[in-house]
Amino acid sequence: MGMSLSGAALRAGVLEAFVLGGHLLLYPTGVLQEPERPATAAGHARPPVVLLHGFTDNRSVFVLLRRALGAGGLRQVEAYNYSPFTRDLRVTARHLARRVEELCERTGQDRVDLVGHSLGGLVGRYYVQRLGGDARVRTLVTLGTPHSGTRVAPFMDAHPLVRQMRPGSEVLKELHAPAPGCRTRCVAFWSEFDELMDPTGTARIDHPDLLVENVQVTGIGHLALPVHPAVIAAVRRALDGPRPALPHPGASSVA
Question: What is the pTM of this model?
């Protein structure tokens, strides 16, 4: 068992290095905010999707996921770059709220789906739980998001955003507060080889008032979550239509 886990961890690490190299090449292409795109005249069969990147990242991380979600013209997919100088994710969540309202008006849709990687998942969740976003967000998908806080890289505590991702922060206390009647379905992807989640299970959502499906993925690190084919396919399935309501937080897995 130990050797098997070590081998899987090694493969995940190699994949992370490969993904990092590719992402560094693509990073300059995603620095600028993308222009707002008009909705097609025919409209779309499914709600539009907004993609939210992680800390110090940009929309370039979603190149493959965006292409997959937009295939066939069934949904409009947009990536939202928040400022690299952001110091409070709650401010970014308020900006997201305005972006969602504008997107609904532009597309004629009443609801949207959100997909957030890492910190982006917390931004989306804060909007849903604390700013009334559950009226607009049908499904929130998070990929490697520290829902209960992460203790990794303590030397980065000087940055206020990192402090907000620590266990027990004021932001996380707000997210752990009661959220009765929340209408958004949440799907949280987490991996035992996510090197930025400490403890690993922090990427799961554990909240009695939320409709949650926690999905464990295997052999995949933090950077690979938005680009791995198995995860991309699972995200598509999650957004193609909600499953029947779960009486309590559910769990599933993706190999």
Answer: 0.88
